[in-house]
Write a structure and sequence with these properties.
Blueprint (H helix, E strand, L loop, with lengths): L2 H40 L3 E4 L1 H7 L4 E4 L3 H6 L6 E2 L6 E2 L8 E2 L2 H10 L8 E4 L8 H12 L5 E4 L2 H7 L9 H5 L19 H7 L4 E4 L3 H5 L7 E2 L6 E2 L4 E2 L2 H10 L8 E4 L4 H12 L5 E4 L2 H5 L6
Length: 303
């Protein structure tokens, strides 16, 4: 074949090659964008809200009080509904405590408060009597697939009270008639939890963080776990959640490599749900809650 002819053919095909390459990269970009959009759609809209902002916009939110019900009945942020883990967990037929009620029951309870999956929600507690129940409520809403914004009140009821925010007692009869029931549609985000069998098979590839007390830790823990008491995830008199820099520092000092999948656990999923919520709020790579905790671990079939 004549060299000039070959050269001519090469040059004539070159624009086609450039076009094909360009289309290939456009295709990859579209696929990546779709993947990112799907992931973003699944990620819960969870963040902090300060007392001042809540005070200014309180009519825009449905408020959940995650403290024990007696605390809620004594005094609450005006209009707040009770949503305490004490009322939505129980002991199963095999004697395992802290079992979360089925999603449909949780959905029915939320719907009874006038909450659907798109409702803007503010959760508060006291990071004390409820064992971090406000974080538990945020995690449960995220797990149920809540689409609307979920906000954790920074500093909880302590901060609200210190800012001279008004509190009110609860009149149970008027509370029961206050909200028009709606339907709450569940779309479980199972990627936010981890099961025992997965933990047994993949624990070496994960960073396990035990959020229980030192005494509980010393009595036995999952092999390879790091101990960080859940109370170290907040600071100050009003128990304000750690900011991203402080949380990263804490995790690094304890040897937690957040480039690996992080799994938090406790006894039955409440304190670990709090730490998971703070982890997410701080914008760290996704973390998961081993909701069954030590109660599941000690009952695992391989035990």
């Amino acid at each position: 074949m004549d060299i000039s002819m070959g050269k001519s053919m090469f040059l004539s095909n070159r624009p086609i090659g450039i076009f094909a390459a360009g289309m290939f990269w456009i295709f990859l970009t579209v696929i990546f964008s779709c993947f990112t959009s799907v992931y973003a759609a699944k990620a819960p809209d969870l963040a902090l809200i300060e007392t001042g902002e809540l005070s200014r916009t309180i009519k825009n939110w449905v408020i959940l009080d995650a403290r024990p019900k007696l605390e809620w009945q004594a005094s609450r942020i005006p209009g707040a509904h009770s949503f305490s883990w004490n009322d939505y967990t129980g002991t199963d037929k095999k004697g395992k405590p802290f079992c979360l009620k089925p999603p449909e029951e949780l959905a029915l309870a939320l719907g009874g408060m006038g909450i659907n999956e798109n409702t803007p929600i503010v959760v508060y507690g006291d990071a004390d009597k409820s064992w971090g129940g406000e974080g538990w409520a945020c995690w449960v809403l995220s797990w149920l697939g809540h689409k609307g914004p979920i906000r954790l009140l920074a500093g909880g009821i302590q901060a609200w009270r210190n800012e001279k925010g008004g509190l009110e007692p609860v009149e149970v009869e008027s509370e029961q008639a206050a909200s028009k029931p709606v339907r709450y549609r569940v779309n479980l985000r199972t990627e936010l939890e981890v099961q025992t069998i997965e933990l047994e098979q993949k624990a070496d590839a994960m960073v396990l963080i035990d959020t229980r007390s030192t005494a509980e830790w010393l009595m036995g823990h999952i092999p390879g776990a790091i101990h960080i008491n859940w109370s170290e995830f907040y600071t100050g008199e009003d128990r304000h959640p750690l900011d991203p820099q402080a949380l990263k520092k804490l995790l690094k000092e304890r040897g937690a490599d957040i480039s690996k999948p992080v799994v938090y656990y406790c006894t039955g999923g409440v304190r670990s749900a709090y730490t998971c919520a703070i982890h997410h709020i701080c914008g760290l790579p996704p973390a998961r809650n081993y909701y069954g905790g030590m109660e599941d671990w000690k009952r695992r079939p391989s035990q």
